[in-house]
Amino acid sequence: MNSATASPPKGPAVPIPGTLSLILPAHNEEGNIEIVVRRAMAVLPHFCEDFEILIVNDGSRDTTGPIIDRLAAEDSRVRPIHHSVNRGYGGALKTGFAASTMTYVMFMDADRQFDIADIRLLAPFVPLFDIVAGFRMERSDPLHRRINAEIFNLSVRILFGVHMRDLDCAFKIFRGDLLRSLDLTTSGALINAEMQAKLRRQGATLVQIGVPHYARVAGQATGGSIRVIAHAMRETVVLWVRMHGYRPPVTSPAPRPYYAIGDALIGASAVSGLTALARMWKKVRR
Description:
With 286 residues, the chain is of the alpha/beta class. It contains 9 helices and 8 strands. The chain has helices spanning 33-43, 64-74, 88-99, 119-122, 143-160, 176-180, 191-202, 226-243, 261-285; strands at residues 2-6, 19-26, 50-58, 78-83, 104-108, 131-136, 171-175, 205-211.
């Protein structure tokens, strides 16, 4: 993936040349979702000629579902999608991507840790790159979540050749046709890694833009739980195996070969580990 980092623009809002689907995955966000949607309804008309807001209620046990149904009844541009059971973050995004219809697709978390008005920072780059990815300039997350993120980002660089400052930042805009062409298989937190690994193989262009990140004021985060982390680790291994057989579609912008450096590093680590074990065994037998 051809990547660049750009400075945030200054000056008046620059409109996006086309239409926009905004995907909002939501799980137990009754304290946030209405505020986020109404904010988007007020902001997006300044940046695109038409838009839709797809809210994926991912098996919420609170009143998230009734809230988004009410919002949809008020405005046809709000489209609620309900999962009867929780399918995970990746599952919610996949549902939203498949249902999207606009020229560009953006996704953002529904927890108010991002402000849709900061789309002004990404908008000028949308016609120039296939992916415009935000990165959190200062993460408003606990220390353990920031450490987990750095370890995860390093693993993805090694295994898949994806070099991003903030892989899991939930403030990105994609070319809609390119995103909808992906056959995504992961259902959990690894969804961003799978998307970027496959888009890298397709030769997609990428620019990274710093965006603000705000403290959560309502609801409870689940991304740092042991269960979510363990699931992501399992999915990482499965994705690494599957990527050996991945072939970019013929419509890809500039297809790239499989990233074999990760295999070489893992192989070298395995050899080093086996050598160390052999030496220890010899010492034990003396």
